[in-house]
Amino acid sequence: MNTVNTVQQAVAALKQKRAWHWLEYLFWLGAAASVFLLPSQHALLTQIAIWSLFAISLDLLLGYAGIVSLGHAAYFGFGAYVAALFAINFYGEPVTGLLVAGIAAGLLGLVTSLLVLRGTDLTRLMVTLGIALVMYEIANQMSWLTGGADGLTGMPVNPVLGFFPIYFMAANAYAYVLAVCFVLFFVAKRIVHSPFGYSLRAIKGNPLRASSIGIPNNRRLIAVYTIAAAYAGIAGALLAQTTPVVSLTYIDFQRSADVLLMLIIGGTGYLYGGIIGSALFLVAQKFIGNVTPQYWEFWIGFALVVIALFARDRGVFSIYERISGALRSRKAKP
Amino acid sequence: MLTILFDGIAYGMLLFVIACGLAVTLGLMNFVNLAHGAFAMLGGYCAYVLVNFYGVPFFASLPVAFMFAAMIGLVAERTLYVHFYSRSHLEQVMFTIGLVFMVSALVDYFLGSQQRFINLPGYLQGRFDFFGVGIGKYRLLIILVCALIVIVLQLILGYTRFGSRLRAAVDDQRVARGLGINVNWVFALTFAVGCGLAGLGGALGAEILSLEPHFPLKFMIYFLIVVSVGGTSSITGPFLASILLGIGDVAGKYYAPRYGGFVIYTIMIVVLVLRPQGLFARGTAK
């Protein structure tokens, strides 16, 4: 009797965690409204949405499975190049391009995960970094295919699903990107609240205990690495479809570092961190970058040090946690 | 051919002098310090300012660069790094990358973003023939100084009281503390010396390594390769790894300039996958 109750309680608690908070509805409604309400900011918003998706994909790795990656741009760039080449050589419909890019990047993730998942944190850091550098070199050297340092241009972008044109139409492009982000966010949320997602967190918490309660650590990590790589590839494909040129900057170290920064600014392990972080990062970049474009780097470094010192890996989310924690303890007192 | 070998050895020696401090922080203290290159850059700029603006002789600027980087390292260790020893690797990565960005931007602000060259004295320029092998005087100097440093380091680690304290502190912090060794102080001093050596290497190699504000990021991967491929159980591992990397890099740039970087990164991945503890680690140490 008692155990049944406990099980029911646990199931109820998990379901409650999975349910959508009213703030989340508000957030996505606001995002949808921004298509109509902020027409002058569509370029920036599109960037934010794409970076958010990229950061979410890193969050799946870092926040849930605890894999630190310094080379996530490898999959982003690979997806972008695949999408562009597919559109040029075969078929220019964007959603098909996304799928192809996602599958290709996922396959690359699957193969490379076998390299990444060996060894300790430091080895992983080095191997992910190494993979991204190798991918960069490949893209740079195969200039007959990728355009090398000049970049890849002339990618056709047909109307989405045949009827929704996004080529050089900022509002439509933003709506398209936002829709893709929402769908993938929804899927990611289901993933992290599934038994699979909880097993990832168990592995992150303590790999030894996780394996001793029967979680196949390696297979789970390979799976999440593949998923994250596919997400990154789709984000890259989105950027390729909404900007006129795919270049080596899609795949360089700066991009891997930036996405890590965004995720960390927003906080890891709750999916919205990537969105909040990339919004803060890009808006700040726009304003601070306008004043002192050269020294933007200083302020981002400063922010990182401060966050690392005080907020740890929860980013700005820790502010919310502290406030709500303080409110809760005040409520509990009387 | 032999000239390439010679240049490669000089390059590798330089990498070792800069990276050996990192071998201690990363391998022994288990701290992911991506900002190590920043100290090398500061040493390099310190020598640059002294030599080019104030006319200090090149040789006199080297110890100053060492002291300058070591002092900054000591201050940074006591005020900032010390908070991160027990944190996760992710937080260490964030913190040190943040430092790198700040230092790069500051250097850019004060000294400009162009590449800088130290005015070398005349007797260090040019090269001479030694049994048909062209030997650059400057590179010969680098090899001599670095070899001296390696020998001194090995002696300090192996034969002095401080060296044995450091080895004890690294092998088992808690027991070392129990024996009355001031581990914090040992680490702080080691960190400072490591930074100082990086600064010295930066000053010494300013000519080869190209001194500019993004130096730390550009060479971060090289320093990390030295440490992770060389393993951290001894000083000889990173030393051999840096010599190999130096020769490989110079030869790669010379023979196959298009694929140089590609080859090095691929080898690094292969080594790390096959031997996660490093190429020269003694079996499974831990």
User: Main β-sheet of chain B: number of strands, strand sense, barrel status?
Assistant: 2 strands, antiparallel
Q: Kindly name the structural category of chain A.
A: mainly alpha
Overall, the morphology of chain B is globular
Largest interface: A-B, 43 and 42 residues
Structural class of chain B: mainly alpha
Helical content band of chain A? over 70%
Report Rg of chain B: 19 Å
User: What count of helical segments of chain B does DSSP give?
Assistant: 12
Radius of gyration of chain A: 21 Å
**Overall shape of chain A:** globular
Mean pLDDT of chain B: 81
**SSE string of chain A, helices as H and strands as E:** HHHHHHHHHHHHHHH
Helices and strands of chain B, in order, run as HHHHEEHHHHHHHH
> How much β-strand is present in the residues of chain B?
under 5%
Would you give an account of this structure?
- The complex is a heterodimer of chains A (334) and B (286).
- Chain A is an all-alpha fold.
- Chain A has a domain at 41-252.
- Helices cover 76% and strands 0% of the residues of chain A.
- Chain A has helices at 2-18, 22-37, 42-65, 73-89, 94-116, 121-141, 143-146, 170-192, 195-205, 207-212, 217-242, 253-266, 272-291, 296-311, 317-332.
- In chain A, α2 (22-37) runs antiparallel to α8, α3 (42-65) packs across α12 and α4 packs parallel to α6.
- The relative contact order of chain A is 0.16.
- Chain B is mainly α and 286 residues long.
- Chain B has one domain.
- Chain B has twelve helices and two strands.
- A two-stranded antiparallel ribbon of chain B has the order 1-2.
- In chain B, α1 packs across α10.
- The longest helix of chain B has 27 residues, at 2-28.
- The radius of gyration of chain B is 19 Å and the shape is globular.
- Chains A and B meet through α6, α12 and α14 of A and α4, α10 and α12 of B.
